[in-house]
Write a structure and sequence with these properties.
71% of the residues lie in helices and 0% in strands. With 319 residues, the protein is mostly helical.
């Protein structure tokens, strides 16, 4: 007699995802490109006077509506079923704070400098691995952390006060949250589709962000009252955020964090280009000296993590 079929509402843990490193690298590279344009639009919208909390609301509202309508039209709302709502909510809290800092720093600093500070995320990942996972850190990663911190100090350049301390603090805080989010996404990617992860992050964070709308500062145009250019900017931020996040989440599903994060450094080139073409800004010497140190530190950490992952995988194989 045939075995009974499982109830369609029953949740099944996803089968282990086959690692496809080249696909993961390509997805992450595409995500970095789209995110660089998103940051450009955020900076332009800020110069037009759009309030950051409202920008964040639309950043999350567009993905929520687009994904919901698309899945409903395909008859695939069942893909949103999850057995891990609390994990999604935790990711939402961390991701919302990270998004606020990541998008907020581009309003305080030039695009290139704000992007480079985001590259300190691997440095924080090392600290987190020691504090939370009690991992042993070898001389390579210790040296990389020191190199990255030296790069940040060079960029800060207190003798010329090129970058405001508050902007530096926001940029470094954003990188710390990115490190936490990467760990969360890697964990969720073991059982959840990218569409599911992105939808719950957008849908759960939307009401949290919307709480701020009634408290717009004096002199700010009432939320939802914008000209055509303002609406296009907000819509573009939402659409770019959706596809950038889908690509980033998919990359972490098919490849290790330590491997795919290297592609993020391409975003520095795009930020330099947008800053020069749109704002006529070229970074000073302190950025050109500090940025390579930070990027080199991230590459070293990513390389060591990749080798460590390969070593663990080989040790786990049966003799």
């Amino acid at each position: 007699m045939n075995a009974p079929r499982p109830h369609p509402r029953t949740f099944h843990a996803a089968a282990p995802v086959q690692q496809r490193p080249m696909l993961a690298l390509g997805l992450r590279l595409g995500s970095a490109f789209l995110f660089s344009i998103l940051l450009l639009l955020v900076k332009l919208s800020g110069e037009r006077g759009l309030w950051l909390p409202e920008t964040l609301v639309w950043r999350q509202a567009v993905p929520t509506l687009v994904l919901l309508v698309w899945l409903a039209a395909q008859g695939q709302l069942h893909r949103l079923r999850t057995a891990r709502p609390l994990v999604h909510f935790r990711r939402t809290l961390i991701g919302s704070a990270g998004m606020f800092l990541t998008l907020g720093v581009v309003l305080l600093l030039p695009l290139a400098e704000s992007t480079v500070l985001g590259f300190t995320a691997p440095i924080f990942a090392v600290f987190l691995s020691v504090l939370l996972l009690h991992e042993k850190v070898g001389p390579w990663r210790i040296g990389a952390v020191a190199l990255g911190l030296i790069g940040v100090a060079i960029m800060a350049n207190p003798t010329t006060a090129h970058l405001p301390l508050f902007g530096l603090a926001v940029g470094i805080g954003a990188a710390f949250m990115v490190a936490l989010v990467s760990i969360q996404l890697r964990d969720l990617g073991r059982t959840e589709e990218p569409v599911t992860i992105v939808f719950y992050f957008s849908a759960m964070s939307l009401p949290l962000l919307a709480i701020a709308l009634p408290f717009a500062p004096a002199g700010y145009d009432h939320p939802f009252h914008h000209d055509a250019v303002g609406w296009l900017m907000l819509g573009g931020i939402g659409v770019l955020g959706l596809f950038s996040q889908l690509l980033m989440t998919a990359a972490l599903r098919f490849g290790r964090v330590s491997s795919v994060i290297v592609m993020d450094y391409a975003q520095f080139g795009w930020s330099l280009l947008w800053g020069w073409l749109v704002f006529g800004h070229l970074p000073p010497a302190s950025t050109w000296l500090g940025a390579p140190a930070i990027i080199a530190a991230g590459v070293i950490i990513a390389r060591r993590e990749h080798l460590r992952g390969q070593r663990i995988a080989l040790q786990a194989q049966p003799a």
